[in-house]
Amino acid sequence: MKTKYVLALSGNDIFSGGGLYADLATYNTNHLHGFVAVTCLTAMTKNGFEVFATDSQIFAHQLNSLKDVDFSAIKLGLLPNVEIAELALDFVKNHSDIPVVLDPVLVCKESHDVEVSALREELLKFFPYVTIITPNLVEAELLSQRNIKTLEDMKVVAKDLHDLGAKNVVIKGGNRFSQEAAVDVFYDGKVFQVLEYPVSEKNNVGAGCTFASSIASQLVLEKSVFQAVKESKDFVYQAILHSDQYGVKQNYDQ
Q1: Which of 85, 119, 160, 243 could form a disulfide with 203, with the two C-beta atoms 3.0–4.6 Å apart?
Q2: Using 50, 70 and 90 to split pLDDT, how confident is the model at 120?
Q3: What integer is the mean pLDDT of 244-251?
Q4: Where is the Pyridoxamine kinase/Phosphomethylpyrimidine kinase domain (predicted)?
Q5: Would the pLDDT of 106 be above 60?
Q6: How many whole angstroms separate alpha carbon 151 and alpha carbon 167?
Q7: What are 38's strand-pairing partners?
Q8: Which residues are bridge partners to 175 per DSSP?
């Protein structure tokens, strides 16, 4: 069988639980060859956990190095600033014939409103060019500029994001509404699907990255979008059950 290549545009998690480490582990578990263009570095400093964006010229060189690779899918993770996002968008536009999964990570949500507003506008530009977006509740609220307090609110926001150009949307609800169940909503412009899983006390660091890169993997393996989402939720749930103190572990015994 011909080797299939999948690209992640994602950050370097210093604790190796999420970001590019979760992406590559997920691709490997699905027997795909993973590539990474690094968008940022992270570290613990006196100010707490900080994100340091890759120099935009270096990021552009990374993407140029990969322009001739025959990718079967792309997963977009943490895009730390507008400059990086613009370069990523240009790259995605040149790969419109393959599945693209956008995990719209918004950093510094509480303290940098101007930066988040600019990045929000940039992320909205991706919507027409990606196969699916996978925001969590906070990201969905920021993107839609609506509050989410109920399952019905999740459905309203999913429709709003679809109306803004996203072809398929899955909002990760987590356990905000219940400590017993984690609830997600999928919407394809026609039908809402609600996915519900028990809440686990195990470490879920890297779960969002793993979820998005698993969807990309399943799309490469020719699953429908909803089936890719469903199988990825199953996969992440099992991975969390087998996690350690640093985050999700993909290579569990199945």
Answers
A1: 243
A2: very high
A3: 55
A4: 13-248
A5: yes
A6: 20
A7: 10
A8: none
Ramachandran angles phi, psi of 85, nearest 5°: -60, -40
Q: Tell me the CA distances in angstroms from 155 to 104, 167, 220, 227, one per residue in order.
A: 18, 15, 27, 19
Is 198 a residue whose pLDDT tops 90? no
CA distance 231 to 126: 24
Q: Where are the domains of the chain?
A: 5-241
Q: Which one-letter amino acid corresponds to residue 111?
A: S
Number of C-beta neighbours around residue 49 at 10 A: 12
- Which strands, in side-by-side order, build the sheet including 181-187? 48-53, 33-45, 5-12, 71-76, 100-102, 132-133, 169-172, 181-187, 192-198
Rounded CA-CA distance 109/143 in Å is: 12
Per residue, what are the HEC states of 222-237? Answer: CCCHHHHHHHHHHHHH
Task: Residue 226: count other Cβ atoms within 10 Å of its Cβ.
Answer: 17
pLDDT in tens, 146-169: 999 999 999 999 999 999 999 999
**Which H helix or E strand runs over 198?**
strand 192-198
pLDDT digits (tens, 9 = 90+) for 167-190: 999 999 877 776 678 899 999 999
Residue 201 burial class via C-beta count within 10 angstroms: exposed 0-12, middle 13-18, buried 19 and up? exposed
**What residue type is assigned to position 204 of the chain?**
N
82 in Cβ contact with 59 (< 8 Å): no
CA proximity to 182, closest of 141, 233, 107: 233
Token digits for 76? 């977009």
